[in-house]
Design brief:
By secondary structure, the chain is an alpha+beta fold. It is built from 10 helices and 10 strands. The structure holds adenosine-5'-triphosphate and magnesium ion (MG).
Length: 427
């Protein structure tokens, strides 16, 4: 693990002698401070581009901060939920068996102690190269080895994340070191916030993916759902009603034979005719509700052509097709596309009194776009889109939207109707 600090210029020189050299020296010090600040910011920014995990990043950052402030050790301390300050792995410069790994500082509620003032108010006193009050805090907490220390708030705006501290500078700490530490505390705070929002984003992405999976499942159910309900109805109709009816017809036949011509044969004939009519109508119903071989031809073009051909034969409407879609579209998408086309065509047949209808399908923007247009009566879309009990148009739009697409209907009385929808190819 490479935990070396970033290469930085040596620590700013301590005060020299002679008042004449002061302006030049303070200029020099300022430049040094700026260089140090830039080096610290660069160290923090480097995390954004790196694959480092957090402990590695903090160890590198601590090493950099220690070097920039001339300290032997450095550590970040993080404020926990119960107001406890605990070590943020990993510190720099501490021995493996140091007490630093066990230190927990309970912060008082009133914020009056030395460490509270640093974390909450960003105040650190500096006396002869150290913060004596802070040194005491560390020693009381079990870090007997600490000879000097300063610390600054680790924060993101008003949010307190903890503190950053440096320890044991052979030449003592300066106000510049404190200034640098504050900058580091702020920049590390922003980085922390950025990382948290990245985590949030990751969690949101996972939730979104789960929602998408649920939506895909729902959509597949819808694609198959109507057919399933019809299948159940058709089999109940076939297995129960029609068989009972056949039973009744047989009974009637027996009755006719048993009566030896005594019964009123005209009435029996009439009853037989009625029963046959009931059977015929039930069989027609059975044909109507039987799921068309799943309405899922292997090829969409074939499916549309078949549907148009039966419409032409039944209603005498001239039909045109312009289908330019691949034959290997996902079955669930095909089912949705076909259901919408079927509903649009049924509407043409039922309501439009059209003489011609055209279906066009093509791949656009990663999805299939379909236009069904007729030259019929047309209608006022706003009035007809939500007639109670009439759900065709609404269902078309819902199916498209649920699949992540859209559906528009354009019509006016006297101008024919255009139904247009788009379904993305991947659910
Ligand atoms: N192509 C069309 N030409 C003329 N009128 C239409 C056309 N399509 C729809 N309409 C009008 O819009 C209304 C609503 O259509 P929608 O498909 O929602 O219901 P529906 O066809 O009446 O009943 P269903 O619920 O069986 O589909 C229709 O009743 C009809 O008046
Ligand atoms: Mg309809």
């Amino acid at each position: 693990m490479d935990t070396a600090a970033l290469p930085v210029a040596g620590k700013a020189a301590s005060d020299g002698d002679g008042a004449a050299t002061r302006p030049r020296r303070s200029m020099h010090l300022l430049e040094r401070s700026q260089e140090s600040a830039l080096a610290a910011l660069a160290a923090i920014a480097s995390y954004l581009d790196s694959d480092d995990d957090l402990p590695v990043f903090f160890e590198r950052l601590n090493a950099t901060v220690a070097e920039l402030t001339g300290a032997r050790r450095a550590a970040f301390w993080r404020l926990g939920a119960r107001g406890t300050l605990g070590l943020q792995p990993a510190p720099s410069g501490f021995a493996d068996d140091s007490n630093v790994y066990r230190v927990r500082l309970q912060l008082g509620a009133k914020g009056e102690g030395v460490i509270e003032r640093i974390v909450f108010a960003g105040e650190t006193e500096l006396v002869k190269g150290t913060s004596p009050g802070l040194d005491l805090v560390w020693r009381d907490a079990g870090l007997g080895e600490v000879t000097s220390s300063i610390a600054a708030a680790w924060r993101a705006g008003e949010r307190r994340i903890g503190a950053v501290a440096v320890y044991d500078a052979p030449n003592g700490f300066t106000a510049n070191d404190l200034w640098l530490l504050r900058i580091v505390g702020m920049a590390a705070g922003l980085l922390w916030q950025y990382r948290e929002s990245e985590d949030d984003l990751g969690r949101t992405a996972v939730r979104l993916e789960q929602a998408m999976a649920a939506r895909r499942q729902l959509l597949n159910n819808i694609a198959a759902g109507g057919d399933e309900a019809r299948r159940r109805f058709a089999s109940a109709l076939h297995d129960d009603s029609l068989q009972l009816l056949t039973g009744a017809e047989l009974q009637l036949e027996r009755l006719r034979l048993d009566s030896n011509g005594h019964a009123d044969s005209a009435q029996l004939d009439q009853l037989e005719t009625t029963l046959r009519k009931v059977e015929d109508s039930l069989r027609r119903l059975l044909i109507d509700v039987s799921p068309e071989p799943l309405q899922l031809p292997t090829d969409l073009q074939e499916g549309i052509s078949e549907r148009l051909e039966s419409m032409r034969l039944r209603a005498g409407i001239e039909t045109n097709i312009d289908c330019r879609v691949p034959s290997d579209m996902p079955p669930a998408i095909q089912a949705i596309v076909m259901k919408n086309i079927a509903e649009a065509l049924t509407n043409v047949e039922k309501h439009a009194r059209a003489t011609s209808v055209t279906v066009g399908a093509e791949i656009v923007d990663g999805g299939v776009r379909v236009v069904v247009s007729d030259n019929g009566t047309g209608f006022v879309v706003a009035e007809s889109a939500r007639i109670p009990g009439h759900i065709g148009l609404v269902a078309m739009r819902e199916r498209a939207q649920l699949a992540g697409g859209w559906c528009h209907v354009e019509s006016e009385p006297g101008t024919g109707t255009k139904v247009e929808f788009w379904i993305p190819l991947s659910l």
